[in-house]
Amino acid sequence: MKKIIAFAILSIALISCNKETKTITKVDPATGKTITVEVPVEKSDDAANQMAIKDSAGVYTQSFNLEIGKTYPLTTYQRDVQTVTSPTGESQSGTSESTDEMSFLVNGFDKGVYDITINLIGKRSSQTGGGQTIVVDTKQAAPKDDNMKMMWSINKALVGNKLKMKMQENGKILSITGFEPIYTKVATSAGTFIKDAAAKADFLKSFKASFGEKSMSEQFTKNFMLIPSKGVKLGEKWTDTENATPDGKVKLSTTYALKSVGDSKAIITVNGGIPYKSEKRTQEGITRSMSSELSQSGTVTLDQQSGWITNQNINVKTSQTETLSDGKQTQTMKSVSNSTVMVNPAAK
Q1: N-term to C-term CA, the chain
Q2: What pLDDT is recorded for position 284?
């Protein structure tokens, strides 16, 4: 009997050793003193709680579960192929590409807020048309063309710098700082090419509007947080609407749907665009008719563990038609643009 009891005790000890534990502090009811004890943690429960994209009664929510010391990539790539057809029926096509490469280093996490360093790594753009291709790449030498050289110089002043970001677990960006030293570098670079003081001031104003805390926060929020805070079920759709023109008369609507969650990733489908719109005006005997339409479709993939975007691939098609008529003759010009917008294109 003693041997059996001893064996049972040994078995319990072995099982206990195989379980993960965590340290907690509590008040000992017998002495009233604070003591530290080890309690077991169930692996399955712990793993579920650590997921950034969680399922609660069939409703999925998104947050961030980033590792301290880890770097997360965010490379955006866009390719546009535009074809313009003249009133004579002749067509010309041109292709433009742009790549912005940055990364996010997680320095720390305190009271629900991540301390992140944004590294601005590189910028590349190219234009192809008429049998020629012009490339502006911060990782290559400056181009010979003066206009392209100015763009390269300003981009070169921009990359290689760092910004500091504070972001909550829920994806809300509290602050992005570190812009002023970059503005100084860009102003110095621009001054080499823009001699007129007023023109230089206008350029810097425009640059700050496109590259500042407000614009960057909006861009990151749009890329980072896709699932609504209330959560969604598999197959459920939600729509985001934004102004496509400064006056707000034209709206861009994007409809998302949670397609699947599994294999450590969440896949979201993207559809929508700008509905067909046309207008007609007559002035001095000439009638001008214009119509336009935009459609988009694709997918976004999020890492279920961290909540970070791992891949995006969205196709956008824009069509515009302009017709001029005096009642006797009619001329029509068409423009069709097919675009691909990707995030982390190298990710599988």
Answers
A1: 60
A2: 86
pLDDT digits (tens, 9 = 90+) for 169-200: 999 999 999 999 999 999 999 999 999 999 99
Structure token pair of residue 93: 């096509």
**pLDDT for position 250:** 85
- What residues contact residue 286 under an 8 Å CB cut-off, 6+ apart? 324, 325, 326
Q: Which residues contact 45 (CB under 8 A, 6 or more apart)?
A: none
Tokens 């001699």 correspond to: 195
pLDDT value, residue 12: 31
pLDDT (mean) for 113-123: 97
Distances (CA, A) of 126 to 94, 109, 161, 218, 342: 11, 39, 23, 26, 16
Q: What's the angle, vertex CA 329, arms to CA 326 and CA 334, rounded to 5? A: 100
Cα–Cα dist 143/151, whole Å: 9
Kindly indicate the confidence band of residue 28, based on its pLDDT and cuts at 50, 70 and 90.
low
* Predicted confidence (pLDDT) per residue in 287-315, tens digit: 999 999 999 999 999 999 999 999 999 99
Per-residue pLDDT, 131? 85
CA 121 to chain CA centroid, nearest Å: 16
Residue 187, SS3? helix
The angle formed by the CA atoms of residues 347, 136 and 220, to the nearest 5 degrees, is 45
Is the distance from CB of 32 to CB of 271 less than 8 angstroms?
A: no
Q: How far is CA 4 from CA 11, 14, 91, in A?
A: 11, 15, 90
DSSP alpha helix (H) spans, the chain:
2-18, 43-50, 146-158, 179-191, 197-210, 213-224
Tell me, what's the pLDDT at 37?
Answer: 55
Please, where are the H alpha helices in 33-100? 43-50
